[in-house]
Fold this protein.
Amino acid sequence: MNRGTRGNGDGGRGGVNLPALRGYNEALLLDLLRGAGPAGLGRAELAARTGLTPQAVSKITARLGGEGLVAEAGRAASTGGKPRTLLRLVPQAGHAVGVHVDRDELRAVRVDLAGSVVAESGGPLDFGAGPDEVVEAVVRALARVRDPAGPPLLGVGVAAPGPLDHRAGVMGRVTGFPEWEGFPLREVLSGRLGVPVVLDKDTNAGAAGAGGAGCGGVGGEAAGTSVYLHVGSGLGAGLRLGGDVYRGARSGAGEFGHQVLRLDGPPCRCGARGCAEVLCLAAVDRGDLAGAARILGEGAANVVALLDVDRVLLGGRVVDAAPEVFVDGVRAVLVARALASEPPVVGLAEVGVAEGAAELVLAPFFGRAG
């Protein structure tokens, strides 16, 4: 299906009663059913939420049922008339794979249409070994998680260190790994894997995962403004502005780790001095996780002051190792530096970067930009 995105003035999404937009309307209904979960929704509710006519909803859901994407979820309690038939998304009708290519490890997951992980694999990776070695590692990872006898594979999302050109699918001059500059990773992987490939920065994938179906993404977090902060082998951010991942005109948004916090600080691998990344990771290396959290909080406070975000979500293996330390430390800094009456909510991202990479594949299927 050719599914696109469309919005209206109040941040919601309405259906359009035009045959030319059939694919959009299908995606819109699937997105609503995805958000409803196993309980499902009735046709009247779908019509009311989308603005589509009841006849249009009936035709579209019948077509989706014929494709195996929608099934009955039972009947709603009667309110005096005939009990309403509820419809639900069939998660097993399609799968997507997400791959997180980090500087020193790789993780791959296969998810269903609801975003639930059904298979995963991981292991060490030497990103510095160069493109050929990394491509082979991704190919092997896909072979481990793919089910040749299973439902259709919609595509593979690959999350890699930035900078990179999301639109062209080409790697940039990754900090510390200049040999990657100009490598057409998306094209090469698509040719090797035989399926569509989406390439994005790891932090953007993290932001996409934070707004996916399992994380309040439908009618919840995706409708607001948030920043996802990732602490792993590097330090970066992904932004969700108005419900969509914000990448910038040149795919360069989110280089959070290279904001300078100390003018006379230690040199960073990017060439500057006193960057948030070098300060934060140095604190981690010496075992001062509370100090690392404060540094992360200072950088987050700068972003909050600039963009007035609603939520600050934390992820990455360093955060996962001491979640309370980082959540409490970042929150304390944001409270102390709050310019508004209420600081943003601080919490943990509910899924990892690999899951977010898979969400980048699923988003267009549900009419979202990702």
Residues 1-12, 16-21, 214-222 have pLDDT under 50 and may be disordered. The longest strand covers residues 105-112. The chain has eleven helices and 15 strands.
